[in-house]
From TrEMBL:
<dbReference type="Pfam" id="PF00005">
    <property type="entry name" value="ABC_tran"/>
</dbReference>
<keyword id="KW-0813">Transport</keyword>
<dbReference type="GO" id="GO:0016887">
    <property type="term" value="F:ATP hydrolysis activity"/>
</dbReference>
<feature type="domain" description="ABC transporter">
    <location>
        <begin position="5"/>
        <end position="227"/>
    </location>
</feature>
<protein>
    <submittedName>
        <fullName>ABC-2 type transport system ATP-binding protein</fullName>
    </submittedName>
</protein>
<comment type="similarity">
    <text>Belongs to the ABC transporter superfamily.</text>
</comment>
<keyword id="KW-0067">ATP-binding</keyword>
<dbReference type="InterPro" id="IPR003593">
    <property type="entry name" value="AAA+_ATPase"/>
</dbReference>
<dbReference type="InterPro" id="IPR027417">
    <property type="entry name" value="P-loop_NTPase"/>
</dbReference>
<keyword id="KW-0547">Nucleotide-binding</keyword>
<dbReference type="InterPro" id="IPR003439">
    <property type="entry name" value="ABC_transporter-like_ATP-bd"/>
</dbReference>
<dbReference type="GO" id="GO:0005524">
    <property type="term" value="F:ATP binding"/>
</dbReference>
């Protein structure tokens, strides 16, 4: 499978704290890339560098053009979901579409259905539960039909039904050949979702591997992770 994004030798420090230490990342086109790492390993920082929220101190990020003059479009859900609190779910989607110049009512209706927001579309964003805010943030990220969707800890705040819905949604994106990067601490869930993985430890990418490697190892992702990072 061809790469969609290649990060080479990426470094990032906050003052004297080295957070990303000469990191290489290869995200294959059409893959679901599970980013793993303990608290503080640098996952969010890496995601922010990848999505252009932060500039790296060094290294390169190459997006592979599929067609001439078509760089992949990226959408990300990072940190606190961002939307207009005093607008409803539907109004938020309309405003976002206006910004993107793609106001199509059918598209909004479809995304509302896909994200299970139908019952909640007239609620003000500020009155949504954490899980529903997460769903709205994902809806906003998807409406522009990106090539790469980046979800930082998307399972946080979701109930079991929400987790199942998100899993199905990611599978749906995968079928549509959209590349997905997802970070999570819930390795049992990531094992079901992802096709490829990267383990960050102390600011270094210590291993990238495919799901086939886990299957061949005969052990669960969690045990594999502990083995690689030296915990077992
Ligand atoms: N704006 C900032 N200024 C200074 N240090 C920061 C800043 N943002 C993050 N850090 C530090 O960078 C390190 C990596 O943080 P990051 O959020 O990337 O880790 P993470 O792997 O996403 O962790 P978690 O799983 O807990 O979300 C942490 O030690 C954090 O305290």
């Amino acid at each position: 499978m061809d790469n969609m994004v290649v990060l080479k030798n990426i470094s990032k420090s906050y003052k004297k704290n080295v957070i990303l230490n000469h990191i290489n990342v290869n995200i294959k086109k059409g893959s679901i890339y599970g980013l793993i790492g303990e608290n503080g390993a640098g996952k969010t920082t890496l995601i922010k560098v990848l999505t252009g929220i932060l500039s790296p101190d060094g290294g390169t990020i190459n997006f592979v053009e599929e067609k001439r003059n078509h760089l992949p479009r990226i959408s990300a859900v990072v940190d606190e979901p961002a939307f207009f609190n005093s607008l409803t779910v539907e109004q938020n989607l309309i405003e976002h579409c206006k910004l993107l110049g793609i106001l199509e009512k059918e598209k909004i209706a479809a995304i509302v259905l896909t994200l299970g927001l139908e019952k909640h579309k007239d609620k003000l964003a500020k009155n949504l539960s954490l899980g529903l805010k997460q769903r709205l943030a994902i809806a906003l990220a998807l409406i522009g039909e990106p090539d790469l969707v980046v979800l930082d800890e998307p399972l946080n705040g979701l109930d079991p039904e929400g987790i199942m819905d998100l899993r199905n949604l990611i599978f749906k994106l995968h079928k549509e050949k959209i590349t997905v990067l997802v970070s999570s601490h819930i390795l049992s869930e990531l094992e079901q979702i992802a096709t490829d993985f990267g383990i960050l430890k102390d600011g270094r990418m210590i291993k990238e591997f495919s799901k086939a490697e886990i299957i061949d190892s005969g052990i669960k992702l969690e045990d594999y992770y502990l083995k690689i990072k030296g915990g077992k």
